């Protein structure tokens, strides 16, 4: 009897919701034999655990599945009836169908730890192409694609890479910042758990481009499943000759080392990350010199986040013009937008830059899960601005957000309903900074503590308008004087809450 082919996510979200018990229930059946392939997440998080089964009609999905649903789902496949949890073909579900998947095309489909499976579905085309090109041609391709860093201010990747390639020195490093610490973000984790070879391929191409033979993946300790996936994928890449002294049999050498952080938010800042990699306390370095000139161990270093490096294989395999056709203005390619908070359909939505917040929150996300009106959305993590309904016509791209006092950051969107107290959210931003500050610069270390004290006075109606003037002045000092984005970006959530929701700062 032919085994029933089943795909079940081993993504952290699915595991947290009981995926392991579902696998045990599937494999514990005595009737129809079942072959279970553990895959990454499709990104439809509200349907996790998501079960996909190969049928005469193609792959059919069911979710969210509990252990008690397994028998009835298998029975419905056998007798051809529609199960209440049936989603049908995931790829025609509107949330999925409206996406343009360049980075996450294999997530939820391939065995994330099978290099053969990765190559069968288009993997390694980029690195093979890079091995045939000169360094200058690779750098020019990345520059022409319009790729910008997906972790912060959107700095052009081609410029960063060329600076490192041109810097004097015989040794260079590639550092992947996988310390994904922003609230409402999970794209890096999903990619590492669901398609780790894509990140490895991107890092190898970066190494070829700047003349580097060693890379580091700095991953947060809070991602145990991603750590396991990356460690196993790196080992498999070595076994198959993708990593080592001769990459795919060529003269190029490249090694990747996995390093695990210890829970510090500020280590997501590139220079603090480098300090941690060198074995010291994660504290921000003054710039200049930039890491591209004087980075890890004093050598020229590229620091890019997971999504930036994961975009590189597509650019090399399909060409700069192909990638550049997606997006708007100076924001090219696709962005992995993560919808979280009080939202009906939370998950990952990969799309070319350009959709408005209205489209993302209302049409794609389906509004709030609670049924209450949306009051605000915070884009860009805990240091991102709060946008009210009046700004929901803002296109999701770098320049439009900057023009309205916001930032895209890593693409996380956290939705708040009308019960939120925006003054308390402003206090939270200051408190978050006070807790996570590395303590190196005074505006961040002291300013955040004074910010909490000022917000407490406002919340207690102690000082009124005088305290609000002081809060604005404090934000200006932190923005202008902080060494890094932690202290420098705290004014985004505080001032946006104050500007767009002033009524919450008038306490009775």
Task: Please explain how this structure is put together.
The structure is a single chain. The protein has 508 residues and is of the alpha/beta class. It folds into 4 domains: 4-90, Glutaredoxin; 115-324, NADH-ubiquinone oxidoreductase 51kDa subunit (Rossmann fold, 3-Layer(aba) Sandwich), CATH 3.40.50; 331-417, Ubiquitin-like (UB roll); 422-505, de novo design (two linked rop proteins) (Up-down Bundle). Helix content is 41%, strand content 16%. It is built from 21 helices and 16 strands. Strand 3 (51-55) and strand 4 (58-62) form a beta hairpin. Helix 7 packs across helix 10 and helix 9 crosses helix 11. The protein is globular, with a radius of gyration of 24 Å. The mean pLDDT is 94.
* CATH homologous group name of the largest domain: NADH-ubiquinone oxidoreductase 51kDa subunit
Shape field = globular
Radius of gyration: 24 Å
Q: Strand percentage, roughly?
A: 15-25%
Second rung of CATH, namely the architecture of the largest domain: 3-Layer(aba) Sandwich
What is the fold named in CATH at topology level of the largest domain?
Rossmann fold
Helix amount, in percent?
40-55%
Q: Calculate the terminal CA-CA distance, rounded to whole Å.
A: 73 Å
Largest sheet: 5 strands, mixed
CATH class of the largest domain: Alpha Beta
Structural class: alpha/beta
Widest sheet, order of strands: 2-1-3-4-5
Task: Please indicate the count of domains.
Answer: 4
Tell me how many strands there are: 16
Give the rounded overall mean pLDDT. 94
